[in-house]
Design goal:
Blueprint: E1 3-9, H1 17-28, E2 33-37, H2 49-53, H3 58-69, E3 72-77, H4 86-96, E4 107-113, H5 121-134, E5 137-138, E6 144-146, H6 149-152, E7 153-154, E8 157-158, H7 161-182
Parallel strand pairs: 1-2, 1-3, 3-4, 4-5, 4-6
Antiparallel strand pairs: 7-8
Bound molecules: ligand FNR.
Protein name: NADPH-dependent FMN reductase-like domain-containing protein
GO molecular function: FMN binding; oxidoreductase activity
Domain NADPH-dependent FMN reductase-like: 4-150
Length: 183
């Protein structure tokens, strides 16, 4: 059976470098791994337990179902102020409150891109900490941190061959990881 992977981008902007990387994933994946993009992160209201008591927003329910049905999730995110963007944290906070939380036992791979020389490493390690509470199964290596992203993405396309190669390696490792831990 082929592996189905959902991808979530922590940036909402149209010209996002992280979204460019997310778009490149299908062409860098091993054979038998298919992708679908989780849409609607920006449509999720700010978390409020009173709102939750009235029922989960449709965007949360739909995203939760898509994650639950997938064999794994790849999160591609920028770093904001040395952490993950609030919009991503907000989405994760909502998803974590769903009954039968979709992240528990779910293989997860993390990628980040930033305009700085560290490529979002601090955001990645904050996301790893969040994933502990989610009980997600996070792939350790190889890590994908795309530094100076503005030099590696041209016209919305990930063109840098070195970056493409490390992503190929991570996705191949992710396929093996999913087989090992979750199938
Ligand atoms: C940033 N940026 C940034 N970069 C970084 O490497 N470390 C950081 O802590 C921050 N902090 C930060 C905060 C806020 C509020 C913004 C808007 C930006 C810069 C960031 O890397 C750059 O904007 C990227 O282009 C964002 O990713 P996308 O939108 O291109 O995917």
């Amino acid at each position: 059976r082929p592996l189905s992977v959902v991808t979530l981008c922590g940036s909402l902007r149209a010209g996002s470098y992280n979204a460019a990387i997310q778009r490149a994933l299908p062409e860098l994946a091993p054979e038998g791994m298919s992708f679908s993009v989780l849409e609607g992160l920006g449509d999720i209201p700010l978390y409020d337990a009173d709102l939750q008591a009235k029922g989960f927003p449709a965007a949360v329910t739909a995203m939760g179902e898509a994650i639950r049905a997938a064999d794994g999730i790849v999160i591609v995110t920028p770093e904001y102020n040395y952490s993950i963007p609030g919009v991503l944290k907000n989405g994760i906070d909502w998803l974590s409150r769903l009954p039968d939380t979709p992240f528990a036992g779910k293989p997860m791979a993390i990628q980040s891109a930033s305009m700085s020389v560290l490529g979002g490493v601090r955001a990645q390690y904050h996301l790893r900490q969040v994933a502990v509470f989610l009980d997600a199964l996070v792939l350790n290596k190889p890590e994908v941190m795309v530094a100076s992203a503005q030099q590696r993405v041209q016209d919305g396309k990930l063109t840098d061959e070195g970056t493409r190669e490390v992503i190929r390696k991570q996705l191949a490792a992710f396929a093996g990881f999913i087989e090992k831990v979750a199938r």
